[in-house]
């Protein structure tokens, strides 16, 4: 009787192992949702090129570093425990993101797996040579039908499937990209974006004192003259992805930390650190200059 009971438990364990499906930890998504979401994120995804740290070089300022990486210099200074953003040292290593935001997975780390054992009840079998033979076959069988002592079962071993490992790179959410942009001012475009010519934005000619407006809603993260070549400059952070910059202003009408709406007047056109009255306008995606013409309405 003892042998019969042991065999029954053994056979139950073997069949459960053969039939179990391995799935990732977490709430099981509704049918179809996971595939749709994964496809959408893959299509919209983009690797964040920015490193976790930056070593200060000669000529760097907190303002230029933050602008280069598409960050708020206030947040960058606070992250690194710097009370005065004007004081940084050559060779100093600055963290660009909180530790949790840029943590890469350990090398060759295996995804955590959990076995779900929500399976049908298993028929117990009488201990005999026929039952022992069927146990051996179950170990390597594909879908087969077994008849033991008058009972019929089907066994389909499933190949273990590893849970997907999340990409360590930041994925750009399409909602982040869904900004409505407008022209920052009126006038003739006298210089266009060009990577070859290292022209990081567009130049729009106008009159002294002409209104400059926010091209999209956001928060003013910089207002001043601390970036060489830009004159009186305003930088607006729109979300985690985009910044816009407005250079050579005559008068600046907003303060750092101020929230602005699209179309709200933020400055008056001028020619500070420029050879003529104009607005130099940039759009930056994850810190990299991109062509504003791709975002602004067609004229």
Describe the structure using short key phrases:
single chain; 299 residues; alpha+beta; Membrane-bound Lytic Murein Transglycosylase D, Chain A; Glucose Permease (Domain IIA); 10-stranded antiparallel beta sheet; 6 helices; elongated
Q: What is the terminal-to-terminal distance? A: 89 Å
Indicate the low-confidence ranges by residue numbers: 18-44, 103-118, 162-171
The count of domains is 3
Mean pLDDT: 76
Principal-axes shape call: elongated
Structural class designation: alpha+beta
- Stated plainly, the CATH topology of the largest domain is called Glucose Permease (Domain IIA)
Radius of gyration: 31 Å
CATH C-level category of the largest domain:
Mainly Beta
Largest β sheet strand count, sense and barrel closure: 10 strands, antiparallel
Number of strands: 16
SSE topology:
Blueprint: H1 2-19, E1 21-24, H2 33-44, E2 53-55, H3 62-69, H4 73-79, E3 93-95, E4 113-116, H5 129-138, E5 144-148, E6 151-155, H6 174-177, E7 189-191, E8 202-205, E9 211-213, E10 218-224, E11 232-237, E12 242-252, E13 259-260, E14 265-269, E15 278-285, E16 288-290
Antiparallel strand pairs: 1-4, 2-3, 5-6, 7-8, 8-15, 9-14, 10-11, 10-13, 11-12, 12-14, 12-15, 15-16
Helix pairs in contact: 1-5
